[in-house]
């Protein structure tokens, strides 16, 4: 079982930030990724619909030999909360690993959260932060346009469209004098340089995908489930919409060509 794959799913491509971190931290692991690109974005759906989609995504991953599941989607992680529906194998979302890191590094106890409308409406990050420390101040902001901008490659630090949107979103958080900012959607780290430039270099940015990958490594190590293969692991990608479009856009997340390793599959 220790050489089974790690299953990762997301509503689209943002979860690739988690895959990239997993490849760095756990180079010998096989990863099976499912991006539900035909139904993106999840962030504007009802909680009931998001949960149904998430369960269908998990059932797809279960068709393969997997030993852990990562919900690399801030929206799904927020809706699931601390009541995961996967109980027979290690499972994590991205909320709690990110919150643990943010609460550990903040010096002022003033934390900002960016996320999709569903994530922000759920209050999942705020609840988790206050569970860690009730006195911490949390400023949240829904940023629905970021997903579309990243998915369409508007990711350069000097892109005028993305910068204009970022300035609009981030101004209220700057006024709250936060010192730590959770990028509460796995798309957002792709434009982390631009966000940092707008919010200020003194604000510590937290990537939920990266923190979820660190959690996964610790969890698998603790359970004796780390792969013992010596060769580099393989990433296999499945999407519910265009294979070609996914492979092309994945370069923005992975900085490598994945053509030939992407397959079409519906949940």
Show the helix and strand layout.
Layout: E1 5-10, H1 16-25, E2 31-35, H2 47-61, E3 66-71, H3 74-80, E4 91-92, H4 95-105, E5 110-115, H5 117-122, H6 124-132, E6 137-142, H7 144-151, H8 160-175, E7 180-183, H9 192-199, E8 204-206, H10 208-222, E9 235-239, H11 243-249, H12 251-254, E10 262-264
Parallel strand pairs: 1-2, 1-3, 2-9, 3-4, 5-6, 5-7, 7-8, 9-10
Helix pairs in contact: 1-10, 2-3, 4-6, 4-10, 8-9
Q: Can you put this structure into words, describing what you see?
A:
The structure is a single chain. The chain has 267 residues and is an alpha/beta fold. It folds into two domains: 5-93 and 210-264, Rossmann fold, CATH 3.40.50.1860; 96-208, Rossmann fold (3-Layer(aba) Sandwich). It has twelve helices and ten strands. It has helices at 16-25, 47-61, 74-80, 95-105, 117-122, 124-132, 144-151, 160-175, 192-199, 208-222, 243-249, 251-254, and strands at 5-10, 31-35, 66-71, 91-92, 110-115, 137-142, 180-183, 204-206, 235-239, 262-264. It has a six-stranded parallel sheet, sandwiched between helices. Strand 3 (66-71), helix 3 and strand 4 form a beta-alpha-beta unit. Helix 2 (47-61) packs across helix 3, helix 4 packs across helix 10 and helix 8 (160-175) crosses helix 9. It is globular and about 50 Å long. The mean pLDDT is 93.
């Amino acid at each position: 079982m220790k050489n089974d794959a790690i299953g990762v799913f997301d509503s689209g491509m943002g979860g690739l930030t988690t895959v990239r971190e997993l490849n760095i931290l756990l180079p010998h692991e096989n990863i099976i990724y499912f991006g539900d690109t035909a139904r993106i974005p999840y962030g504007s759906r009802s909680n009931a619909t998001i949960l149904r989609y998430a369960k269908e995504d998990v059932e797809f991953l279960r068709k393969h030999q997997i030993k852990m599941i990562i919900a690399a989607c801030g929206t799904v992680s927020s809706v699931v909360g601390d009541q995961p529906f996967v109980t027979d194998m290690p499972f994590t979302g991205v909320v709690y690993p990110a919150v643990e890191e943010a609460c550990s590094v903040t010096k002022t106890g003033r934390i900002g959260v960016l996320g999709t409308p569903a994530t922000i409406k759920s209050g999942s990050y705020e609840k988790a932060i206050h569970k860690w420390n009730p006195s911490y101040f949390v400023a949240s902001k829904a940023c629905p346009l970021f997903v579309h901008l990243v998915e369409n490659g508007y990711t350069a630090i000097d892109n005028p469209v993305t910068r204009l949107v970022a300035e609009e979103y981030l101004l209220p958080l700057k006024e709250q004098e936060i010192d730590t900012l959770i990028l509460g959607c796995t798309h957002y780290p792709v434009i982390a340089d631009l966000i940092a430039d707008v919010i200020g270099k003194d604000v510590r940015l937290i990537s939920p995908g990266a923190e979820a990958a660190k959690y996964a490594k610790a969890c698998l190590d603790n359970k004796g489930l780390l792969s013992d293969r010596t060769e580099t692991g393989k990433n296999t990608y499945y999407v519910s919409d265009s294979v070609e479009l996914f492979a092309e856009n994945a370069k923005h997340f992975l900085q490598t060509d994945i053509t030939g390793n992407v397959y079409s599959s519906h949940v």
